[in-house]
Amino acid sequence: MASSPMASSTPSPRPNLDFRHLRGQRSPSEFAAVIRRAAREIGERVSCDARYIGRVEAGEIRCPNYAYERVFLHMFPGRTLTDLGFAPRSAVRGRGARALSGAPASHTTIPLYESSPSGPSGPETHECDPYEIQSHEESDVLRRAFMSGTATVAAASLGPFGLAAQSPAAATAQRGGRAGEAEVSAVEEAVRKIRLLDDRHGADGLYRRAGAPLRTAYALLDAGTTRQSTADRLHAGAGELAISVGWLAHDSGRFDDARSHYAEALATARMASDPALEAHAFCNTAFLARDSGRPREAVRASQAATRAARHLSSPRLLSLLALREAGGWAGLGDKAGCEQALTRAHALFDRGPSDADPEWMTFYGLAELEGLEAQCWSALGDWERAARHARRAAGVASAQTPQFTRNIALYTAELADDLARAGRPDEAATAGLRVLGLLDEVQSSRIQSMLATTARVLLPHRRASGVCGFLERHASLPRAV
Fold first, then answer.
1. Which of 295, 328, 334, 382 is deepest in the core (most CB within 10 A)?
2. What is the mean pLDDT of residues 155-164?
3. In the prediction, which pLDDT does 19 show?
4. What SS3 class is residue 179?
5. Which of 448, 445, 463 has its CA nearest to residue 416?
6. Entry's SUPFAM superfamilies (predicted)?
7. What CATH number is given for 367-481 in this structure?
8. pTM value?
9. Are 303 and 325 in contact (CB under 8 A)?
10. pLDDT tens by residue, 427-463
11. How far apart are CA 324 and CA 307, in angstroms?
12. DSSP character for 480?
């Protein structure tokens, strides 16, 4: 794959003339004020100022975070980020999202899927960005390939991870036995691609094949690097990759595997003295502990993450960590502790996004805040309150981040379960049917488990309006082997 003109190892930002044109005769400060007003119109808070406008126009901000994206698309309806002069999100999703500079077409890549003897070896394939699929035909091809569970998936959407037949040891030998810029960029590309596919499709179809780039990343660490800056990037990339693979295990119900991967990431963070990676590893560990029925560990892990993150200047990260802590308190049945953590989470969230927000947090917006709060009230048995927050989460996600198909399905499944337990079976069935309609795109054991629980709760109400249809359609789902 040829190097991207949008980024390089020694980036030379390209001015964003389209965005400058939109500002017109207004000063940067005046335009920033217009953006802040537009944000308030849709319930967002952005700390936009003249400096931010200058960075955008200079090309230093290649793609805005999701809060700014929602504001810009509200201000300029009918336009895309590309129309506004920004790079596609797929070019920057992931930690650093660095591309190779001047690398030949045969530069080092890391296979997300390893070749199998029966895998396809025929026609040439091309990269397909899951966020940029526009036609129904392309979407159907990707969905069929994904659901097939074969190496066709790699051909359909994972072209950048070529050299699938190459072993990790051979990859480290390409540059004389030491990892360099190309190898580190390949690790970062693997992180980005996994996150993109998980956002749209969920974890089940990805986890079994995601071990290949992770093994390669740690083989590169063992081989060593020639520069300290490269070593720092490689440690960060390998740690983020371990967390990404751990999340795939977590979301597909493989809790022991997830715990191992998160521990690996935490060890990498400690060895590299990387507080950002440490906070991320503890954050995911807290979430896993909650899901595994260890709420006190969830509280401790989230507090450890907060200590690691306290100097990172990211209120949104601290907000997410407060929500992780709230989930632990809810699991312990401590309503007061949960409410205190939720109050802290909202206050920190309201400070708005920051340039220091980690790139892995692009999923964390108002929808996720509402969804995680819904889970807290559900754990405390307050089904009506949980349903209100879950409904908000699903609505916001559908309107603002439609590309996060998995999260829309998750929030709607939470809503269905809360409604069922709140004694509103007809509304629960309607929500459940919406989730079933998304399962041709999403593979997540978490969501399927939630639907199965909802179906059991609704079984005594099978004669209620719509419930029978939901139960019949749910019963017809293919069962995981």
1. 328
2. 34
3. 92
4. strand
5. 448
6. TPR-like (SSF48452)
7. 1.25.40.10
8. 0.65
9. yes
10. 999 999 999 988 877 777 788 889 999 999 999 998 8
11. 14
12. P
Predicted pLDDT at 451: 93
Integer Cα distance of 375 and 224 in angstroms: 43
Closest CA to 197 of 154, 261, 243, 260: 154
Question: Could you check whether 275-364 and 367-481 share the same CATH topology?
Answer: yes
CA nearest neighbour of 181 among 106, 98, 238, 60: 98
The CATH number of 275-364, from 1.10.3470, 2.60.40, 1.25.40, 3.30.70, is 1.25.40
Within 10 angstroms of residue 350's Cβ, the number of other Cβ atoms is 10
Whether 81 shows a pLDDT value over 50: the answer reads yes
Q: Could you give the angle at which helices 66-75 and 28-41 cross, rounded to 10 degrees?
A: 90
Taking the C-alpha atoms of residue 99 and residue 12, their distance in angstroms, rounded to an integer, is: 13
- Please state, for a pLDDT cut of 70, what percent of the chain lies above it: 75
- Do 71 and 42 form a contact (C-beta atoms < 8 A)? yes
Which of 33-42, 259-268, 340-349 is predicted least confidently?
33-42
DSSP type of residue 460: G
98: pLDDT strictly greater than 60: no
Phi/psi region, residue 211 (left: phi>0; alpha: psi -120 to 50; beta: rest), is alpha
DSSP string, 360-386: GGGG-SHHHHHHHHHHHHHHTT-HHHH
Burial label for 72, CB within 10 Å (0-12, 13-18, 19+), is buried
CA–CA separation, 421 and 312 (whole Å) = 40
| pLDDT higher than 80, residue 152 | no
DSSP states of 126-160 as a string? ----TTS--SHHHHHHHHHHHHHTSTHHHHHH-GG
Cβ neighbors of 73 (< 8 A, separation 6 or more) are: 79, 80, 81
Over range 353-363, report the average pLDDT: 89
Domain residues of the chain, as ranges? 1-91, 108-273, 275-364, 367-481
- Structural contact between residues 368 and 336, judged by C-beta atoms closer than 8 angstroms: no
Q: Give the phi and the psi of residue 295 in degrees, each rounded to 5.
A: -65, -35
Instruction: State the Cα–Cα distance between residues 69 and 75, nearest whole angstrom.
Output: 10
Tell me which residue has tokens 């191992």. 260
Give the pair of three-digit tokens for residue 442.
């999403």
Cα dihedral 301, 307, 311, 317 in deg (nearest 10): 30
183: which 2 tokens? 């190898």
